[in-house]
Specification:
Length: 311
Amino acid sequence: MNGALFTKSTTGLILASGLIAASSVLAHAQEAPVALGASATALLSASYTTVPTGLATLGGHTFDMTSGKMIQLKNGGSASFAGSYQKPTAVHLLLNTANTNIMYAGSPVGTVVLTFSDATTQSATLTVGSNLREWYIGAFGVVNTVTDITPNASTPYVTQAVWTTTVIGGTGAAVLDMLTVPVLAANSSKTLTGVQLNDTNPFGSLQIDLSGLTVQFTAPTPAPAPGGGTGTGTGTGTGTGTGDNACGNHQGHVDAAKAEKNDAKAEKTDVEKADKADKADEADKNDEKADNDCHKAAKKPASTTTAGHDD
């Protein structure tokens, strides 16, 4: 996999993880969980009393929570991930903000940019109170609600509280929300090659927390298993599968039997012809003998009788 880049205005470029998908998940589902890798440095357990672990299903989708860490962006930071996914349908992010003072309500504070193999891009705006909210919703004076919660095929929407617990050291509710960015119909037949999360907020202490990422795509159609005959042989003896071979062999036996029968018939005919010829020769010989007898009889002098006279 290609590496992902984590950028921050004050620290420059830091190598992060690529899109790593567990093969067992890819074999049975149409999505690829992403490991956030080295760029994820903040422990989830430092903020949340309980945390999801391993390959966790949240909001109906699988996320790689193995590291137990999240990426925190602020004041122009960004995180980029590279991969290759044919026919993508959506990108799902476990995404919240921190220090989300009510003064940020209605403000665009970031973007999610999808890049495709033909170099085209699709961008979604992150707006506080619309599709982004505070992770510690039990805190005072923060934006703790969102309005874009209806699933659709063109704009980002939020599945609220796919993980709910309490804040460390307190009793207030703490959540992980899932933001879904649908891939537009015009891009759904392309190959997704990159996902980038940007913090575009230039002031204040607000930060964007990315705790998980997964790419949903249309799985390719499996190739048929070799040698899988349908049992509908062509009768030529060169079948493509077990059924075809059986029928082909059967046809070959039938043809051989027919040939043997024809040979036997031919032999019988020849014998009959020979017998007839022998009989004809014998008849000719008998006729010839009869003719010879007739000729001999014709050549032999006839006997005469002299009548006596009285003197």
